[in-house]
Design a protein that fits this description.
Shape: globular
Number of helices: 13
Largest sheet: 4 strands, antiparallel
Strand order of the largest sheet: 1-6-5-4
Number of strands: 6
Distance between the termini: 42 Å
Oligomer: single chain
Radius of gyration: 22 Å
CATH class of the largest domain: Alpha Beta
CATH topology of the largest domain: Enolase-like, domain 1
Helix content: 40-55%
Number of domains: 2
Length: 312
């Protein structure tokens, strides 16, 4: 999922194309922005105060995704929203503009009303599985929301000065790792991250070590902890899946990665969990069964519950 999209910068819609009421609203916003210009220092301080308000907020401000065997990291859509709110005099929107048989297209537009500078990005994301089958309506909605988030983030970060973004991002990263001045504090923070991945996503300690590009858990230090938190947020936001994240890492007992399961093995995995919704939820996160199979299990569970209710 994470690799099935592309982001393209596009032309900003012409203000002349807006209707009369919309143009009037924009004119009012522009004149207000000129009358009450932003204070850059206050905007920066307010953004830093918000992202460091809690550890949970700070964690939401970054993402990490594996690309070409190496992780890429950066500010998330949550950070973009916080900065745009504090920056002020800015107009931002993101919406789905097209749905084809194979792709969903989202456009994000950010407009600095004070400086009259705008940027627009389109994000195209696949809505077809590996077997070529189109996603269900619910999955298309989820994919559209994820595409909107990416388009929103790209548009906002294109007009906010990089110095502001970098400073706020760095402040969030500092809170994520916390005080690691002693070995005891480092071990505690590392274990907290490991436990979170295991309880939420079923990812083991050995898999996290490999994901961080290390050989042993003791090699995971402050930078690696921040990286793992970025992976966690990417999973939480739907920017990637467990199967995508670990497709080159997760290995079954027979030496086959989850993404390389044969059709027979996929059927066997489905048979194991078809009567257990919780087990099926973990299996779909691990890439052992498809979204279509998981939806079928949910439908069967609902039907079973309805039948039992009617019997009573």
């Amino acid at each position: 999922m994470a690799e099935d999209y592309e982001a393209l910068q596009v032309q900003v819609p012409n203000i002349q194309q807006m209707d009369t009421i919309e143009r009037a609203n924009v004119d009012i916003q522009v004149s207000t922005a000129k009358q009450y210009p932003r204070d850059l220092r206050r905007s920066l301080n307010n953004a830093i105060a918000i992202v460091t308000m809690s550890e949970e907020t700070a964690q939401s401000c970054s993402y990490a995704l594996p690309r070409g065997g190496k992780p890429i990291t950066g500010p998330s859509v949550h950070l973009a929203k916080i900065i745009s709110q504090c920056y002020g005099n800015i107009r931002v929107e993101a919406k789905v503009v097209e749905i084809t048989q194979k792709q969903i297209v989202s456009r994000g537009v950010a407009w600095d009303l004070e400086n009259n500078y705008a940027a627009a990005f389109e994000v195209r994301r696949s809505i077809a599985g590996k077997n070529g089958q189109r996603f269900t309506d619910d999955m298309i909605t989820v994919t559209g929301n994820a595409a909107n988030s990416i388009a929103y983030r790209n548009a906002v970060l294109a007009i906010i000065p990089k110095g502001i973004t970098d400073s706020v991002y760095k402040a969030a990263q500092g809170l994520i790792t916390g005080d690691l001045t002693t070995e005891t504090k480092l071990i505690g923070r590392r274990q907290k991250a490991i436990d979170a991945f295991k309880s939420e996503w079923g990812i083991t300690e050995d898999e996290l070590v490999k994901l961080a590009g290390k050989q042993t858990v003791n090699q995971i230090k402050a930078d690696e902890i921040a990286l793992l938190v970025g992976f966690y947020q990417a999973l939480k936001d739907g920017d990637t899946t467990v199967s995508e994240l670990l497709k080159n890492i997760r290995v079954k007992a027979d030496g086959v990665t989850a993404s390389e399961l044969t059709e027979e093995q996929k059927v066997a995995e489905y048979e194991k969990v078809k009567d257990d919704v919780k087990a099926a939820e973990l299996a779909v996160l691990q890439g052992k069964i498809t979204n279509e199979q998981f939806n079928a299990i949910l439908d069967a569970d609902v039907s079973k519950r309805d039948k039992n209710a009617n019997t009573l």
